[in-house]
Amino acid sequence: MKLNLTHNFTVTVTGHGNLNTYLHRFKTSDTPSCPCGHQDQTTDCLLFECELLSKERNDLTTTILKTDVWPTSKPELIKKHFKAFFKFANALLIDKLTNPKPNGDS
To answer: Domain total for the chain?
Structure first.
């Protein structure tokens, strides 16, 4: 299968990139928390919990529930539901969901 990987898809799968938990490790974000306020901003938060992504998640779950169960694992999303997962990941405005330090301090 030929894949045209995008930044958002890679971040969503690996957790490496513009997520507060990742940025906080390198002291480029003041907090690991998700802007939704419920937990740390991880890929699992984006996929399963973040209230700021309810529309995108609803589109994903609606597609998956036609043939499978929700919630499901990331490996299953990639293996069985790649198109829907890819669409979800690319719909995310990840750069707008992070809390960088004020004035770009590092």
So the answer is: 1
Q: pTM here?
A: 0.85
Long-range CB contacts for residues 5-8, cutoff 8 Å, separation at least 24:
6/89, 6/90, 7/94, 8/89, 8/90, 8/92, 8/94
102 domain residue, yes or no: no
Asked, for residue 21, whether it belongs to a domain, the answer is yes
**12-59: pLDDT as tens digits:** 999 999 999 999 999 999 999 999 988 999 999 999 999 999 999 999
| Core vs surface per residue 4-35: b (16+ CB within 10 A) or e | eeeebbebbbebebbbbbbbbeeebbeebbbe
In a domain, 103, yes or no: no
Distance CA 35, CA 91 (A): 17
Would residue 2 count as lying in a domain?
no
Q: Which domain holds residue 38?
A: 7-94
